[in-house]
Fold this sequence. Notes:
GO biological process, one term: myelination
Distance between the termini: 121 Å
Shape: elongated
Order of helices and strands: HEEEEEEEEEEEH
Keywords: Disulfide bond, Glycoprotein, Immunoglobulin domain, Membrane, Signal, Transmembrane, Transmembrane helix
Number of domains: 2
Number of strands: 11
CATH topology of the largest domain: Immunoglobulin-like
CATH class of the largest domain: Mainly Beta
Strand order of the largest sheet: 2-11-10-5-6-7
Family: Belongs to the myelin P0 protein family.
Radius of gyration: 34 Å
Pfam families: V-set
Strand content: 25-35%
Number of helices: 2
Main location: membrane
Amino acid sequence: MLTFLALASVVLLGIVPEQSQAIVIYTGWERHALVGSDIRLSCSFFSWRWTSEDVTFSWTYRPDGSRDSISIFHYTGGAAYVDNKGPFRDRLEFVGNPGRRDGSILLKNLEFNDNGTFTCDAKNPPDIVGRPSSVRLLVFEKVPIQAGVITGAIIGVVLGLLVLIVVIYYLMRFLVARRVFSLSVSKHGKKKKEGSQQRQIKV
Length: 203
């Protein structure tokens, strides 16, 4: 009887579906680009399980000023599908690597009308529960002044640090060389003085 119960328990446990766990999806927060340029929108996810062969990625787009989102891309069953009627039908390319949990897309030849919010959703069965992640795209005719100022400031700080490191390096070398020279002169003078005193004693 106990053997029968044990076997029944094993069978029942074997047919219970594997529980899903939460999946965490990552995208950038905001991206800036110029009209006519290309930009990569990254999407990846974290899951406690191995990457499933049934992994899926979906991208939707909501233009600025609109409440409705439209589907622009879907990856499932090892194949990528781009919406053939949307605004990116001829300007979207899948550049991700599902095996490495990467569902990134590339938007080409950007236009002013492309401003909006892009949302990525991913599933890694049995992990299918998770909140989609969104990134906002801002397209400019020229690089925003704020972005240019920040970039210039970062470059200036880096160059300043490099110059400071070089100055400190050569200053330390100079001080060490000066110290060595002083010790050498002092030692030589001391020996010379001792030799002179010895000669005076002999005389």
